[in-house]
Write a structure and sequence with these properties.
Blueprint (H helix, E strand, L loop, with lengths): L24 H25 L3 H24 L5 H26 L6 H25 L11 E3 L3 H8 L1 H7 L9 H16 L3 E3 L13 H17 L1 H35 L9
Antiparallel strand pairs: 1-2
GO molecular function, one term: phosphotransferase activity, for other substituted phosphate groups
Family: Belongs to the CDP-alcohol phosphatidyltransferase class-I family.
GO biological process, one term: phospholipid biosynthetic process
């Protein structure tokens, strides 16, 4: 009888993987973080069904934080794998596509019945399309190095967290009754369009690789202050972060066009001839 749980090797290049070959813990740790984030996303869906929107939103926020950690842990431990990349994309679709769509529908979009459900579907599918495009672009060998500083469209965690801005405002006391549902619908639809758009947004992945020595202590203090504000005033902080991020989108697009123009000018300049030199 075949084994119920055959040995699995994340990146086996052999046609038949060797049995009983141990998998290093550095390959497992990042995937465990991804699975914990996925559990939070699924729990958020359950909490939304129970009408407990505040803990559901917190679960999505924590899942977003874990999503920002797992890739860095994988690169730090040299535990990146194709399996981990695919698992991360599937988890992102649930955490930042399906879960926020269902939370927003249960919060207020249900007031518009089928129209509200269609917008929730559009948001979830837009997130899936955005993740598929991101995975396809990773395999592009001709992508210039400077483009790694930008995402194409709004990234999945940012799209999910900014889409839930009406919920943050509701938790702070702003009334979102049936009268406000059309405005929430338009806002969620705009975020979905930004997610699948080609508008460049700041990546931040290449920032901070080398920090000047004089900036170390101020960065520590700023990090502690930001953490304290997020813990003490969670929804006020999320409102400020969401609005600040939306405000940076035009700045990122302008910076992208400027660097693209510089690259085009550099390529269009003819090389110097030996005689001129």
């Amino acid at each position: 009888m075949d084994d119920l749980f055959p040995p699995f090797e994340p990146d086996a290049n052999e046609p038949r993987p060797r049995r009983f070959k141990p998998v290093p813990f550095r390959m497992i740790a990042p995937n465990m973080i991804t699975l914990m984030a996925l559990c939070l996303g699924l729990t958020a869906i359950r909490l939304a069904f129970e009408g407990r929107f505040e803990p559901a939103v917190i679960a999505i926020v924590v899942a977003g934080l874990l999503d920002g950690i797992d890739g860095r842990v994988a690169r730090l431990l040299k535990g990146t794998s194709r399996f981990g990349a695919e698992l991360d994309s599937l988890a992102d679709f649930v955490n930042f596509g399906c879960a926020p769509a269902l939370i927003l529908y249960g919060f207020t979009l249900f007031n518009l019945k089928s129209v509200g459900w269609i917008v929730a579907l559009i948001f979830a599918i837009a997130m899936g399309l955005r993740l598929a495009r991101f995975n396809a672009m990773l395999d592009d060998p001709n992508r210039p190095e400077w483009k790694k500083d930008f995402f194409v469209g709004m990234p999945a965690p940012a799209g999910a967290l900014t889409a839930m801005l009406p919920l943050y405002l509701h938790f702070l006391g702003l009334d979102f009754g049936a009268w406000a549902t059309p405005m929430v619908l338009i806002y969620v639809l705009c975020i979905a369009l930004l997610v699948v758009s080609t508008v460049p947004t700041f990546s931040g992945k290449t920032m901070g690789k080398r920090v000047p020595r004089g900036w170390v202590l101020p960065i520590f203090l700023a990090g502690v202050a930001a953490f304290g504000l997020l813990i003490s005033f969670p929804f006020e902080s999320l409102v400020a972060i969401s609005l600040a991020y939306l405000a940076t989108i035009p700045v990122g697009a302008a910076q992208y066009r400027r660097r693209q123009k510089l690259e085009a000018q550099g390529r269009s300049e003819p090389p110097e001839s030996p005689a001129a030199a």
